[in-house]
Amino acid sequence: MSLSLLLPLAWLTLAIPSLWDWLFGTWTAYSQGHELLLLGVAGWLVWRQRDATSEGRPVRLGAIFWLTWVLCLLGYVLGRSQEFIRIELLSLWLSALLVMWSARGWQGLRRTWFAWLFCLFAMPLPFSLVLALTAPLKEAVSMVATTVLSGVGYPVGRSGVVITVGQYQLLVAEACAGLHSMFILEAMGLLYSHLAQHTSWWRNGLLAVLAVPVSFLANVVRVMILVVVTHHFGDAAGQGFVHNFAGLALFAVALVLMAIADAVLGLIWPDRRVSAGASADRHGTAVAPMPTPKPTPTPTGVSSARRGLVLAACLGVAAWAGWCLRPGISTEAEARAQVPLESLFPLEIPTQDDGPASAPRSAWRLDPVASGMVRPAFEAARRFQMYDQVLERTYVHPSGQRVMLSVAYGRQQSVGLQMHRPEVCYRAGGFRVSDVTPGSLALTGATASSSLPVVRLVAALPERPEPITYWRLFGDEPVRDEASLKWRQLIAGLSRRGLADGLLVRLSTINANADAGWRWQEVFARDLAAALSPSQRLRVLGALPEDAAGR
Fold this sequence. Notes:
By secondary structure, the protein is α+β, with helices and mostly antiparallel strands. It folds into three domains: 120 residues, no CATH class; 142 residues, no CATH class; 214 residues, no CATH class. Helix content is 53%, strand content 15%. The strands form three sheets. Strands 6, 7, 8, 9, 10, 11, 12, 13, 14 and 15 form a ten-stranded antiparallel beta sheet that branches. It has a three-stranded antiparallel beta sheet with strand order 1-2-3, with helices on one face. The chain has a two-stranded antiparallel sheet with strand order 4-5. β13 and β14 form a beta hairpin. α1 runs parallel beside α12. InterPro entries: EpsH-like, Exo/Archaeosortase_dom, Exosortase, Methanolan_biosynth_EpsI. It comes from Aquabacterium commune. Pfam families: DUF3485, Exosortase_EpsH. Its main location: membrane.
């Protein structure tokens, strides 16, 4: 086999499993659907320069290259085995760039620099960053769309990022807020400028900048289409085929607007003709081409072949190590995954009111309107990613106070794939989150050392304030802070002793008085703890100090 084919094939042993998991497998929720298009365009750009890059020759690889190469492959193994998706993909991108450098030298990189830059637009962004950048965009898109539609007579209203049209409600989510589409439209704007090869830097730069407002307007059109279709044909129509069609309409509108903007800019900064063999500077004067640099000494055929074999072998070893070092799920987690969540929470929870022992006690009972429901992984995976089960119930106190219980369980909790904190999920749902405060619940009335670590916060929509208390378990250990959780997850993964499972229990009430809501949640948690058997208590509350001492 030719060495020119050996290195790309060896690199594909890394790329295919990673890209498959990202685009179609475990990490599907992190992709936005346009990454395959961007990567395909990048591959076409490299292929388009195949004749030019063939002029490049392998260069002698110094210590800097080999150090970068080793760190890159170690990063891939760490990212692949411990499920750091961004480290894995960046290492994959850098390894491809280094393969090009080793095979075609600086000449090959110079010819294909735009393709490597273009690939970076496909990288997944951190979810917290997406939320922070998208929140104002969602509100702006919602405001403009409702203003336009109400102006033409549609019965629309807006509450934050929730649009009401007739009897229907639509949430303007991240996909409709423009951030991801801004990235792809920015990438397409740069691609358009690169292929058009305009001689004016002002024209190229403004085309790239105009991709942002163009994307915003296109997203407004997308939301308006969904609102109008939902109003006339119902929610099922708006969330079905038309939802995807509106995404296509977004790009069609954006491309038309980009073409119009380019035509207008062309009237101000038209392309100038240049003489053959020369290029034009920003003032339109001919500039002689740069002198050809002196050729870099290249290795001999034998050493080049040996080097190619070494690089290919390194790629194969990295692919094998990334696969083999992936930790499995612990036996305890596999056993606990077989226990339905509904069996852990009683249908009735006796209250702990003071009174004679012989007197009948009242109890928290299920709300007859809001029934419990367990969502298996195949139904809830898109919404909860790593969660295998989700239990949702509403309990009613004899006084009439309601407490909503939501429990999410995932059998595999790695650093990359783990339970989502409510302060993140609520922001994604359009809520305003405030007063996020770590705290504790003294469930047994003992000293503070026996308390359960919790987090309290307030999530609010207009006219819907919702105080929340939640706690998390990693295996059977309560999570006290985020840093210690990630450290335990990383150690469990690197030691290959098996990944633990995770449980998140969330209590919430609808109450304008946050302190009163949190007090009711604490009352419910104490009553729940007293009603659980020791095995149930361990699964729901974790190994608290007094439980460990009792065992």
